[in-house]
């Protein structure tokens, strides 16, 4: 099974594209969903967040107040590092479990939406391909402000907390430009899906050819040893 990473910037359109790949029949894993799961009350990360940031980051029902915690960590890099140190190992464990489930289901490849793939870099070596969902900065700002009801200043702080999207584009194998209409992105994603399906099909084939060639070479070598007189 092969792993394909999908990343981008905050509100660049990763989840929308991931949903489309899922509709096209791909196995998908959304790391933001995992990140929300592992901070529920009762989980170790929840306890450690309260210890580190205090009860101010809790709602009345005990859930994490994501708005308060978000405002805190997107403005202060040291607080962000602290939250990452608590959540990332737990996210990683859960992601490995989900990936293993896909393997047991016999999936040929799985697409993982990992927002901080290039910031953390740890998972890059396991990925066969990386797709970056790009959109220009003004569009990203507007979409982020609208979706999260943020001021310009707060939205800019969130974008600043990540590597520039242009740098991520340079490190990608495939780029989907989501600056325009959704129908345009959808068209690009459908083409990319077909391309991925084709190219990943060739991998087992190439392996088969290699094994075949190795077997023929060994057979010829043994045959030559039997037929040729020994010195
Ligand atoms: C800070 C939190 C509470 C804000 O919650 P909120 O519901 O507002 O945002 P959500 O979780 O939907 O994340 C939205 C996007 O924010 C960006 N983002 C989230 N966490 C971080 C971070 N630590 N550093 C930089 N960008 C981040 C990503 O692009 C993500 O896709 C939450 O994002 C969180 O718990 N983050 C820590 C876990 C993490 O690193 N998640 C990112 C996936 S590895
Ligand atoms: N092509 C598009 N045209 C208009 N709106 C779009 C387009 N693509 C995405 N959006 C909207 O932009 C917002 C961000 O999209 P989405 O949630 O898919 O981004 P994301 O990269 O997953 O965000 P995050 O990093 O916060 O998880 C959403 O409100 C979505 O509906």
TrEMBL record:
<keyword id="KW-0547">Nucleotide-binding</keyword>
<dbReference type="GO" id="GO:0005524">
    <property type="term" value="F:ATP binding"/>
</dbReference>
<keyword id="KW-0067">ATP-binding</keyword>
<keyword id="KW-0808">Transferase</keyword>
<keyword id="KW-0812">Transmembrane</keyword>
<protein>
    <recommendedName>
        <fullName>Dephospho-CoA kinase domain-containing protein</fullName>
    </recommendedName>
</protein>
<dbReference type="GO" id="GO:0015937">
    <property type="term" value="P:coenzyme A biosynthetic process"/>
</dbReference>
<keyword id="KW-1133">Transmembrane helix</keyword>
<keyword id="KW-0472">Membrane</keyword>
<dbReference type="InterPro" id="IPR001977">
    <property type="entry name" value="Depp_CoAkinase"/>
</dbReference>
<dbReference type="Pfam" id="PF01121">
    <property type="entry name" value="CoaE"/>
</dbReference>
<comment type="similarity">
    <text>Belongs to the CoaE family.</text>
</comment>
<dbReference type="GO" id="GO:0004140">
    <property type="term" value="F:dephospho-CoA kinase activity"/>
</dbReference>
<keyword id="KW-0418">Kinase</keyword>
<feature type="transmembrane region" description="Helical">
    <location>
        <begin position="203"/>
        <end position="224"/>
    </location>
</feature>
<dbReference type="GO" id="GO:0005737">
    <property type="term" value="C:cytoplasm"/>
</dbReference>
<dbReference type="InterPro" id="IPR027417">
    <property type="entry name" value="P-loop_NTPase"/>
</dbReference>
